[in-house]
Design brief:
Helix content is about 30%, strand content about 25%. By secondary structure, it is α/β, with parallel strands linked by helices. Strands 1, 2, 3, 4, 5, 6 and 16 form a seven-stranded mixed sheet that branches. A four-stranded parallel sheet has the order 10-9-8-14, with helices on one face. A three-stranded antiparallel sheet has the order 11-12-13, with no helix packed on it. About 40% of the residues are buried.
């Protein structure tokens, strides 16, 4: 690697790796920093991703993307970037055994779903078995006709219930606390035939034929449970530099994925939009091309 990279990509999920493939094929020097906790790693099998009729696990998809990025000269470093600095000459990324300089930075740091109170081992097993799911857009098809529960107590949870009603008539909302649902939401869901169950949802157990939990209505079993508890947006590196973010903490970008700070770009779930692999990849392609063109504007890319 040169003393100063053309681009540092922070985040090794679908967005980060897609951008790295593009950037490396633009003959730019690029390194991906990956903390190894991306949401895609938890996908047991995605059937929405075009080109894989039988589906593909998130881990396998990322493994293939890593190999492709490395094939074209990308360096991948399995480390977390803990701080990002910016001066007139570019950016500096710092962390444990990390001190990298780059002309530009792409943030593809994603989000983390807020989980219900469930032990890590049980959570992982329930995900693998399809008893616990986080994305109805991704896998609502798989729960067609099933007995499904959504956990939450706000408009987002209500919207998820309504979305799932297009796949099954058996949808319940289990409140995540002891307070009731707002009256307008309660009426809306009742009109859709959604059963509303008092919370909190806790004491989760994997059963032979589903996932059970305790609630104000006692122990209940469902084929699949969707937590709708929101997510934590990993935009800290951007906000520390003063980049503009939305009220929810998503990084604001223009139509070329540029942030409000020159040389800083963002793509994937950390940017507001549809949280889908295909969408993240599309944003990454746009971002990588903008990075290449912006860098070439100040230093022509000639061979």
């Amino acid at each position: 690697m040169s003393d100063q990279l053309d681009c540092l990509v922070i985040g090794g999920g679908p967005a980060g790796l897609t951008a790295a493939i593009y950037l490396a094929r633009f003959h730019l020097s690029v390194t991906v920093m990956d903390a190894g906790h991306g949401r895609a790693l938890q996908i047991p099998c995605t059937h929405n991703h075009a080109g894989f009729p039988e589906g593909i696990s998130g881990r396998e998809l990322l493994s293939r993307m890593r190999s492709q990025a490395i094939r074209y000269g990308t360096w991948i470093v399995d480390r977390r970037v803990e701080a990002l600095t910016h001066d007139g000459s570019g950016f500096g990324a710092h962390g444990r055994d990390v001190d990298i300089k780059a002309r530009s930075v792409l943030l593809a740091t994603g989000v983390t779903n807020r989980r219900p109170p469930i032990a890590d081992a049980l959570h992982a097993e329930a995900l693998m078995l399809g008893r616990l799911r986080y994305c109805p857009v991704c896998d609502g098809y798989e729960v067609t006709g099933q007995n499904v529960a959504v956990i939450g107590s706000d408009a987002g949870a209500a919207n998820e219930c309504e979305f799932l009603r297009s796949y099954t008539a058996r949808v319940s909302l289990v409140l995540d606390g002891t307070e009731g649902l707002a009256a307008p939401l309660n009426e809306r869901l009742a009109g859709l035939g959604v059963r509303i169950i008092g919370g909190p949802a806790q004491d989760f157990r994997l059963e032979e034929d589903g996932l059970s939990l305790s609630s104000a209505a006692g122990r209940l079993r469902f084929d699949t449970v969707y937590p709708a508890l929101g997510s934590v947006v990993h935009s800290d590196l951007a906000t520390a530099l003063g980049a503009a973010v939305t009220d929810d903490g998503c990084i604001q970008v223009d139509r070329h994925q540029r942030t409000s700070i020159a040389g800083l770009y963002a793509a994937g779930d950390v940017v507001i939009g549809l949280d889908q692999i295909s969408h993240a990849m599309g944003q990454a392609g746009v971002a990588a091309t903008a990075i290449r063109n912006d860098l070439a504007a100040s230093r022509p890319q000639l061979r």
